[in-house]
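hey so u asked for the seq, here:
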Amino acid sequence: MTGNEVKRRYDASRRRAAAAERRAGIIAAARKRFLAEGYHATTMAQIAADAGVSPETVYKAFGSRAGLVEAIWNTALAGEGDRPAESRSDEGAMDAATPDEILRHWSRMAIEVSPLAGPVYRLVRTAAVSDPDAARLLERIDAARADRMAHNAAYLVDGGHLRPGVTADHARDILMVATADLYPAFVDRAGWGLEEYAELLHRFLRAALLP
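ran it, structure tokens below
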């Protein structure tokens, strides 16, 4: 390999790293602005100014406000670990010795992801009432959530762990409601701590899903 080839690869790597850093900065600035001001009151120009880039850069990277919120949502779902939360969730479910341990593991994952994803989901759900792009985004998010919760429910279904009368669809729906609605009710509105919430979620899922 020649010196010029090494230099070109190095320069390309630096450009990719800079682009990823710039994208992350835009997403972080957008999250802060959207959650503070709301979907309709936030403009791409404001986000660009907050991130220190041009509006054209934001539009080129994300296309629209809905596209930017979708990127915020996907970033939130990844959690705060070194690897995506979904991968770690699957590993914990596969390694669990009992179905109760699976539910406890999911409850622990919830207190990592829910504080990040919950506010974004509620932002989209509110905006979807009057914004067609947000409504389409909500449809995509809910469809992906349904697929993911069906995937999670399969750990219990395949192991024969569900209580009699609870179907795979029931389990999917229970997981969807629990992960979307319990956190804001108990943490945001009632002021419960995260550890209290994790224990509540574990007890709820155990009572709803297991014999």
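The CA atoms of residues 44 and 65 lie 7 Å apart. The longest helix spans residues 3-37.
lmk if thats what u needed
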